[in-house]
Amino acid sequence: MLKVVTVKLPERLVNALDVLVKQGQYPNRSEAIRAAIRDLIKKELSA
Q1: Which class for 17: exposed (0-12), middle (13-18), buried (19 or more C-beta within 10 A)?
Q2: pLDDT band at 14 (very low <50, low <70, confident <90, very high)
Q3: Closest C-alpha among 12, 43, 44, 14 to residue 30
Q4: Average pLDDT of every residue of the chain
Q5: What's the longest Cα–Cα distance across the chain?
Q6: What residues does each domain of the chain span?
Q7: Distance CA 23, CA 27 (A)
C-alpha cells in the first residue's frame, strides 16, 4: 500500500526531476523520487 508523504524541495531539485522525466528516465516525478529514496535506503542500510 502506498502512503502519501508531502515534502518541500528546492526549485532546482524539482527542475532536475522534470529533466529526468522529460528524458524518459522516469514516467513521472513520483517514480523518480521513489527510485531515489529506494537507492538511498539501500545504500544506508548496507553501509
Answers
A1: buried
A2: very high
A3: 14
A4: 97
A5: 32
A6: 11-46
A7: 9
